[in-house]
Amino acid sequence: LAKLLTVGLISGIIAAILNIIYTYIHESVTGFSIPEVVNMGSISLASIIPGIFAGLFYFMLRRIMPNKSALIAFVLSNITLLGFSLIGPFSITLPDGTIASNGFAALTTPLHFICAIIYLAMITRVMPKS
Question: Which of 4, 25, 77, 97 is exposed most, by the fewest CB atoms within 10 A?
Fold first, then answer.
């Protein structure tokens, strides 16, 4: 458990760093930003906390399923959750209730993909697949 929680935390931190870098690059190229919604704090929390939960979830799957089945279930769950998480960037209102501008989806959609890829890559690599 400790190993997967640690890897989940580290993967969340890496995802947060990559997401912050992407946000700054996107903002400098397009000039679009919404710092009241998408900022360093919100990006960090939205990247680190799910990373920890991903590690915990994979641990629980490995306790109730054979290792290969747990791996497959973890990958499919991540893909499914990624799909559901994309509803937010493509909605017409922001989390604070204001109407989303055209650049919101372009700013936030890659953040979701970065997290999912980092979680899958790191958490599934740390445990043996046998």
Answer: 97
